[in-house]
Design goal:
By secondary structure, the protein is an alpha+beta fold. Helices cover 24% and strands 25% of the residues.
Amino acid sequence: MIYPIVIYGSQVLRNKSVEIDATYPDFKKLVDDMWLTLGEASGVGLAAPQIGKNIRMFIVDCTPWAEEVPELADFRRVFVNPEIYERSEQTGLFEEGCLSLPGIHENVSRPVKIRMRYMDENFVEHDEEFEGYPARVIQHEYDHIEGKVFTDHLSPLRRNLLKSKILKLAKGQYRCSYKTK
């Protein structure tokens, strides 16, 4: 099933998500459906709050950057109950967009390297360091399970300049090529 993407303005995007365990109902189907939804929307990451579920889970697909970075050719991961516990002091700017904020793209500064604990789709624990594109996408999706969106990282001036676009999203005035709610 392809889920509609929740658009900015919905409270579910501002709620902090809760941890889950292997007893979460139909978890494997949820993972499969999230991959289908991400593919339909042509995104590189999707967090559960973006499909209306406030659980600590997201998926990341960095394969679109494989031509530029060959080691990303099979970087498709599921992150359950993640915890970023270390961030590099070095940061980098990168233009981000979000399926929940269609039409808005802004340069966001984030740490270039992170270390985190998480469980995969089989609830196997991992402790890994990520850098580059994976670190960027993971941090973006991690924000969603913390009740944040990428525009929260912009300067007050930049957010103010985007205010009318963001208000239009909240009022349902936007266009995109994927199902939304």
